[in-house]
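Sanity check

After download, print the first record. It should look like this:
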Amino acid sequence: MAWVRCLSVVLSCSFALAPPAWAGGPGGVVDSGVVSRAVGSGVRDGMLIGFTATGPTNDLASAAVVGACQGAGADQCSSDEQTNDVFCIVSVGADDGSGVVSGGSGPTVEAARDDAFRHVTAANLTLDPSARILASSC
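Expected structure tokens:
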């Protein structure tokens, strides 16, 4: 009985798996020209600083921006916004010691900054209106 279950699982898997995609890259990778972008922030020498990075997916771009931040010797590194779309993205923070940083997106950098402030309000936090854009990518 156990052998039949193993065999049926193996047969099910072999029919469920698609053949690997190949267009000049490794199996499973489709080169569509779309690149994900991420913006993030961290603290170095007591100052908020921003970073940008790219990757083939939002998750990998997010990991790359945190890695760039850590590689620069910053602490409290975060990925604040990611996109694989045509939107601009920003990371916004104030040097007031609050530690509040927010990400936003929009058709322009200014609209993305406004979106970051909306995220702060939705989280019942406050961000100094003079908060600066730490990083942006369009």
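If your output differs, re-run the checksum step. Summary of this record's structure: Residues 1-26 have pLDDT under 50 and may be disordered.
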